């Protein structure tokens, strides 16, 4: 039986958990929940996936032009990936191609966000989510006792925003759908950028000294705020600002029409 382990803090104590692969009993119960959820969704007039593309076109949310744009973005990613694999270009140009790939993937996510959102609301999407939620509630156990962490599906749904629940869902999804926990790190562009130390372990852009930078190679802190070489806050033009973003300057009085200083009361 496949398993995935992870550790996290629960009530100020580090606890190790195991996400086990669903048993036959789990799968049968999950299918029952899928069927019931699908039936309820159909009764509530949810659209089925077979009609989704038609609905998107009817609502003006998807058309042949957007489909062509998607194909072009995907093609450009493949072209850049091949160029990185082949080499024979300057390191500077290779870095540009890798960063472009990150931007292209972002554009693809934005382009298909409407389709992805609508799919989650389709009858099949709702049923898939219901089954998956049940499997998470059933397959998360303590590493030492092998006892279930969640009492039942309702308990999981009530606590689904907790860190334990989120990590359990991520690990089960990776297990079921054959995904990689390090999916982002293993993308061709990130492997290249990490190899030549253009990004750190958290996939953040860094300069040759290992300092965080933005896409225009300006120094930033871990929160994305601009800083100078001394670590002081600045605006995008290099002017010093304080913690609140107000300019640090030697204040002078404003002048009246005759050029005399206006005394503020």
Report on this model:
The protein is mostly helical. The protein has nine helices and three strands; from the N terminus they run E-E-H-H-H-H-H-H-E-H-H-H. The chain has a three-stranded antiparallel beta sheet. A hairpin with a 2-residue loop joins strand 1 and strand 2.
Helix/sheet category: mainly alpha
Name the beta content range.
5-15%
Shape: extended
H/I helix tally: 9
**Cα distance, first to last residue?**
78 Å
Write down the overall mean pLDDT. Answer: 93
Largest sheet: 3 strands, antiparallel
Poorly predicted regions: none
Computed over alpha carbons, the radius of gyration is 26 Å
Number of strands: 3
Order of helices and strands, N to C?
EEHHHHHHEHHH
Helix content: 40-55%
Strand order of the largest sheet: 1-2-3
How do the helices and strands line up, and which of them pair or pack?
Layout: E1 3-10, E2 13-20, H1 24-43, H2 52-58, H3 64-86, H4 91-111, H5 113-121, H6 123-139, E3 140-142, H7 153-158, H8 163-176, H9 188-195
Antiparallel strand pairs: 1-2, 2-3
Salient structural properties:
47% helix; 3-stranded antiparallel beta sheet; 3 strands; 265 residues; extended; mainly alpha
Précis, in short:
The protein has helices at residues 24-43, 52-58, 64-86, 91-111, 113-121, 123-139, 153-158, 163-176, 188-195, and strands spanning 3-10, 13-20, 140-142. By secondary structure, it is mainly α.
